[in-house]
Write a structure and sequence with these properties.
Layout (H helix, E strand, L loop, with lengths): L1 H32 L3 H15 L4 H22 L2 H18 L5 H22 L2 H17 L6 H19 L5 H18 L6 H22 L2 H17 L6 H21 L3 H17 L6 H19 L4 H21 L6 H20 L5 H13 L9 H22 L2 H18 L5 H19 L1
């Protein structure tokens, strides 16, 4: 009789643990909704611990939720340690699911694992992670076919478009990859229709707009840029501030990019100023406290827009715009660091150096030149001759010119000789390209004239 009672008590205890685990999952989901991601991780961890040894499937389901929350911390908080923990958990989850018959659970987990790899790879400029994500999405598409799972198929097409676009940013055949990304987003929109899944439709519209904006910028194509503006505005019809505040902010940020590029290409100052207004809207929801890296990204975009605006203004108005650009870039770099976003950190330093050179070109003195040289030097902590040779060579030229102007103004032959070395290193890389000879011979000739003048 006692043995039966003990067994009954044990079963009851297990049931209570599973019930408590389910409550932790509900609490974790609620915390996630409130963007309290650390609390979500704790709740999912508690749920998995409670289910362990009782229900193996539930245990790994909860571990997968924990990995998702850790990946979200990595993405939105710039915490690479959280990504490391997420990837370790995903590996364990996939190890379990590989032995199970549920293909959909496997596809769902692998898709989310790939999402983490894609964001981490994009942030760190790591093509290996991006390629792993691309491979994973293609594997998932073998399970989630359009005929069997049209909505999920569209989700993976959307994700695939994102990783292809990220790879395009870091490879020489960028336009081909951007075209592939554009095709993937358009495929997603065939099933993610506005009637069936309006918020997903808005997401794909926004992503399509991002690719159209890049293609338009590279090809100097107003049609693509106008298409990008239209896509972002369509997304904002469903992504309202009340309904989807985070996504509303993202669409406004991206709209700002497209308007700025279109306004620059068409020499339409009103569009550039509209771009700044869109960025300011984004910052209403993308606050520094809530999403510091996204806040920083928008500050970088504001800086780029003011820099662009300044280049088309007269002296006094230009200086005001350039000062605003510098201030925005410096704010960005308070959150965007070499450790949490090395690739973008280098990009912002490059942008900062470039606008400081704009100021130096229009004024006397050396302060902006010295700051520009320091910012260019910072980029070379990320852009090296092996992993990113074109970026490295570009910075060699620009930094060489900054040192050359600084050396001439300070009558420092050491700086002028260093400038010559940098520009020659850049010339070695670009030598075979059309127009390179005339460009670099002019630059080097000017350095020689300055050397003769100050010697």
């Amino acid at each position: 009789m006692r043995a039966v009672e003990a067994g009954t008590a044990s079963a009851s205890s297990d049931e209570q643990k599973l019930q408590l685990a389910a409550l932790h999952v509900e609490a974790g989901n609620a915390s996630w909704t409130l963007f309290e991601l650390d609390k979500a991780v704790e709740h999912f961890d508690q749920a998995a611990q409670l289910a362990e040894g009782i229900d193996e499937a539930k245990t790994w389901e909860y571990r997968k939720l924990q990995a998702d929350a850790l990946a979200a911390i990595g993405e939105y908080k710039g915490d690479n340690d959280a990504y490391d923990r997420a990837f370790a958990l995903y590996d364990q989850v996939m190890g379990y699911l590989n032995e199970q018959p549920d293909d959909d659970a496997w596809a769902n987990a692998y898709n989310d694992f790939a999402n983490g790899l894609a964001v981490y790879g994009e942030r760190n400029g790591n093509l290996e992670y991006l390629d792993d994500a691309r491979y994973a999405y293609n594997e998932v598409l073998e399970i989630w076919t359009r005929d069997r799972m049209p909505i999920d198929w569209a989700r993976v097409q959307n994700n695939l478009g994102g990783v292809l676009a990220a790879m395009a940013e870091r490879q020489s055949d960028e336009l081909n990859l951007y075209y592939m990304a554009r095709s993937a987003y358009r495929s997603a929109l065939e099933e993610w229709t506005r009637d069936k899944v309006p918020l997903n439709w808005a997401e794909a519209q926004s992503n399509l707009g991002t690719v159209l904006r890049v293609v338009g910028k590279v090809e100097k194509d107003t049609e693509s840029l106008s298409g990008a503006v239209e896509a972002f505005n369509l997304a904002l019809e469903e992504w309202t501030q009340d309904r989807a505040p985070f996504d509303w902010a993202m669409a406004n940020n991206n709209l700002g990019n497209a308007l700025t590029d279109l306004g620059t290409l068409t020499d339409d100052r009103a569009k550039v100023e509209a771009g700044i207004s869109a960025y300011e809207k984004a910052l209403e929801e993308w606050t520094r406290e809530r999403v510091p890296l996204l806040w920083a990204a928008t500050q970088n975009n504001i800086g780029a827009t003011y820099a662009t605006l300044g280049r088309g203004l007269d002296r006094n108005e230009a200086r005001d715009a350039f000062d605003r650009a510098v201030a925005a870039y410096e704010l960005c770099l308070e959150e965007r660091t070499q450790s949490n976003e090395p690739w973008d950190w280098a990009g912002t330093n490059y942008n900062l150096a470039t606008v400081l050179m704009d100021i130096a070109d229009r004024s006397e003195g050396v302060a902006e030149l010295e700051r520009a040289v320091a910012a260019y030097e910072a980029t070379l902590l990320v852009y090296d001759a092996d992993s990113s040779p074109e970026n490295w060579a570009d910075v060699q030229d620009r930094m060489g010119w900054a040192k050359g102007v600084l050396g001439f103004r300070t009558k420092d032959t050491g700086l002028l000789n260093a400038a010559k070395e940098h520009i020659e290193a850049s010339y070695d890389y670009f030598r075979g390209q059309e127009g390179a000879r005339a460009y670099f011979e002019e630059r080097l000739g000017q350095i020689d004239q300055w050397l003769a003048a100050v010697s």
